[in-house]
């Protein structure tokens, strides 16, 4: 494994500056490495652990902003491109889903998701479309309720009036621990048509190592919310030892990668293996202990604080909140990458979600209105990017 994030000297300096005052999304909410909320912010079974790494096509090397798709979004979080055209975007704090016409930027509210209880980093978070969307028009959403984090699905009917286009929610999975922060929230259907969900440990750090808890995990479920066939522990848990996972993406070899917030020292990009233990709270970043999986790359928390990730043109693209930049991580295999590159540093503020738009295009969602940014005219927005 190569380490390219920062030098040890810089890491030590960063630790001294941020220990006890860092939050995942990058602002001082107090606390330290305690369990208090006042501390830091898509058929067949998935590839088996130990699968031989295959050659990845040469990665394209840069990215440019093609245009601003739309502006004036409030606390956007999840993004789901529709096959018929349009982008569904969730509002964390308003609990609504809006369709954005990707050609004109016009916004149409589908409706509010019942039961959403926003607060801190919780609210209406990730979105995903059913693998059978063409026939069932089901939209899946991960949200924080009064009692837990849960996943629901709703039928989307564009023929109904604006504000009334979401059917009644059907709860697919409930009981994921909730907290002021560290609620995870990213959901995606994998190439195996199973539903994956990244969860957080809600500052109760011991949950991450407890395989009976769904906190601090990546879950793998059937579309109906049952533990997916082939899961390593005969439960919903696919991997564990996570602090707060908000990014999930697969490459062309169907390998799963996930981004993870560190505490004060290292943010991570991990290759996810069934049953893998990713170390938290015993390890942050790379470990010499073979029982823990080490990241394929790591960053100081002020450079990243990563939320969404996407795969395009041979690289994983990672949106940084506190880092206010888009990272490109060219894949060399499953256990290492070529040197990461940063783009758009400070140009659009905090970056929440990045999604493949097919081929060499990406959708990128900013996050300046989430209570930790400095919103300006037009915030928040969706951008169209081209990988060059």
UniProtKB/TrEMBL annotation:
Entry-linked Pfam families: GSDH
Boundaries of every Glucose/Sorbosone dehydrogenase domain copy: 73-372
Signal peptide coordinates: 1-19
Record field: compositional bias (Basic and acidic residues): 378-388
Start and end residues of each stretch annotated as Disordered: 20-62, 276-303, 366-388
Top-level taxon: Bacteria
InterPro entries, per the entry: 6-blade_b-propeller_TolB-like (IPR011042), Glc/Sorbosone_DH (IPR012938), Quinoprot_gluc/sorb_DH_b-prop (IPR011041)
UniProt entry keywords in alphabetical sequence: Signal
Protein's recorded name: Oxidoreductase
Species for this entry: Streptomyces aurantiacus
């Amino acid at each position: 494994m190569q380490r390219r994030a920062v030098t040890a000297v810089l890491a030590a300096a960063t630790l001294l500056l941020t220990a006890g005052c860092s939050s995942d999304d990058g602002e001082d909410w107090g606390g330290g490495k305690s369990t208090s909320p006042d501390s830091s912010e898509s058929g067949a079974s998935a590839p088996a652990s130990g699968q031989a790494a295959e050659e990845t096509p040469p990665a394209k090397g840069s990215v440019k902003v093609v245009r601003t798709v739309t502006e004036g979004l409030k606390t956007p979080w999840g993004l789901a491109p529709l096959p018929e055209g349009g982008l569904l975007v969730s509002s964390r704090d308003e609990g609504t889903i809006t369709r954005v016409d990707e050609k004109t930027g016009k916004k149409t509210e589908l409706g509010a998701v019942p039961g959403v209880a926003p607060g801190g980093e919780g609210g209406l978070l990730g979105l995903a479309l059913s693998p059978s969307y063409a026939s069932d028009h089901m939209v899946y959403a991960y949200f924080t309720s009064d009692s837990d984090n849960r996943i629901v699905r709703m039928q989307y009917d564009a023929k109904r009036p604006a504000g009334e286009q979401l059917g009644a929610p059907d709860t697919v999975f409930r009981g994921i621990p909730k907290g002021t922060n560290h609620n995870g929230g990213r959901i995606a259907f994998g190439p195996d048509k199973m539903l994956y969900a990244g969860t957080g440990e809600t500052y109760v750090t011991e949950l991450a190592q407890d395989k009976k808890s769904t906190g601090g995990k990546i879950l793998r479920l059937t579309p109906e919310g049952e533990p997916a066939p082939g899961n390593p522990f005969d439960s919903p848990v696919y991997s564990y030892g996570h602090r707060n996972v908000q990014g999930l993406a697969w490459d062309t070899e169907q390998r799963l990668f996930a981004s993870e917030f560190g505490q004060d020292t290292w943010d991570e990009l991990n290759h996810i293996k069934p049953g893998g233990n990713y170390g938290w709270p015993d390890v942050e970043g790379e470990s010499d202990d073979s029982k823990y999986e080490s990241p394929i790359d790591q960053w100081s928390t002020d450079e990243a604080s990563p939320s969404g990730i996407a795969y395009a043109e041979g690289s994983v693209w990672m949106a940084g909140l506190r880092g206010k930049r888009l990272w490109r991580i060219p894949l060399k295999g499953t256990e290492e990458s070529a040197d990461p590159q940063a783009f758009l540093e400070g140009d659009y503020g905090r970056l929440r979600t990045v999604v493949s738009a097919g081929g060499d295009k990406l959708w990128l969602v900013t996050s300046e209105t989430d209570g930790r940014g400095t919103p300006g005219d037009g915030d928040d927005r969706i951008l169209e990017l081209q990988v060059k």
